[in-house]
Amino acid sequence: MDQQRPTAPIPPEHQLPAPQPDQTRKRRKYWTWALAFIVLCLILYWGYHHDEAKSPAAAQSGGRRAFSGPVTITTATATKGDMGVYLNAIGTVTALYTDSITAQVTGVITSVHYKEGQLVRKGDPLIDIDPRQYEAQVTQAEGALERDQNLLAQAEMDLQRYKDAWARNAIPRQTLEDQEKIVLQDQGTVKNDQGTLRYDQVQVAYCHITAPISGRVGLRLVDPGNLVTANATTSLVVITETQPITVVATISEDNLAEVMEQPHHGVNLPLDAWDRASEKKIASGKVTSFDNQIDTTTGTIKVRAQFDNKTGLLYPNEFVNTRLLVKTLHDQTLLPSSAIQHNGSAAFVYLVQNSQANTRSVTTGVTDGGKTAVTGVNEGEVVADSSFDKLQNGAKVIISQQAPPSPSTQGNAP
Q: pLDDT of 327-363, one tens digit each?
């Protein structure tokens, strides 16, 4: 048998130190606290979701919290009435006539009769151009006409003498015929002189520019002493007719069939013009015409309405909001739009009966002027019109004449 070899002793400098009792206790304490913290977090997480699962009504109402006690509300009553079907669009005020008057003769301006922004009537004087050279031409034309008229008279007298002589066989027929042609020539000369005189008279008339239409003149573009030339592109004055005036708006091609189904194919339908904020009605007019084609880039068609504009509030090239009344629905049940609540695509109201608010589904129709036509509510029934953040189905309510302030507007008590 082999004998076991004696184990050599390990030198003290190579021996591992024995673990200390204090370090072991610290490690155990650390892991205990960590495990307790994890367990606490799990308990809190489970408790939070458990409370939410116990309140499905709160989740369906968008996280509303139940309030203890009755809710103070204001109410609205369903009524019967008429409701108009309107098409809203942006329109441009457009004048029926806009005249940019230019000079038709060359000359120096002697006077300007209008004031900037003045309302003028047809035929009122506007601008005078120095007419002296054209009046001189009229005098020359009149002199030429008188001379040729006398020559014609002389030729006619000679013709009468030749006729008498021909009757007595005192002259040859050729002489008579020649005199007849001379008379015709003189008649043509007189007619030419008359045309020249009329032309020169028109030139004189062009020196006195009058208003071709009634309307409002713009800012002054020329002053006395300015030289103007005939047929120049520079305008001397611009007149815009403002009474009556029109508004050109657009409607979608999707609504065109509904409009054309109305009497007279939509002509004479009422159209109202409102200010830019749609808060004030400026004027009321009627549709006069539709464009003959649809704009393929926008899918709309232009419609023109005419306004008397007696107040002058509609200004050319002004942008306005238009409301075209297509038709009127009669005997509709009406509710304030603020009383109707929405849950996705579904609409409902809080019907108030016996101091209790209960939800009722409704179907909404046309909306106008803060009111909406609905079905599902009868005339005379009362619905809640405020405090929707506190209301729930079956909640007790107290009816107030004024809506209570919302929590967002309440200040903190001192």
A: 988 999 999 999 999 988 899 999 998 888 899 999 9
How many angstroms separate the CA atoms of 212 and 99, rounded?
Answer: 8
Instruction: Check residue 376 and give left, alpha or beta (phi > 0: left; psi -120 to 50: alpha).
Output: left
What one-letter code names the amino acid at 11? P
- What's the confidence (pLDDT) of residue 11? 56
Whether 282 contacts 274, CB under 8 Å: yes
The H-assigned helical ranges of 239-309 are 253-260
Angle, helices 132-167 vs 173-206, to 10°: value is 160
Q: How far apart are CA 308 and CA 242, in angstroms?
A: 9
The values of phi and psi at residue 288, to 5°, are: -110, -30
- Report the C-alpha gap between 77 and 378 in whole angstroms: 10
Nearest-angstrom CA–CA distance, 158 and 298: 79
Neighbouring-strand partners of residue 93: 247
Domains belonging to the chain, first-starting first, are: 67-84+330-399 (2.40.420.20)
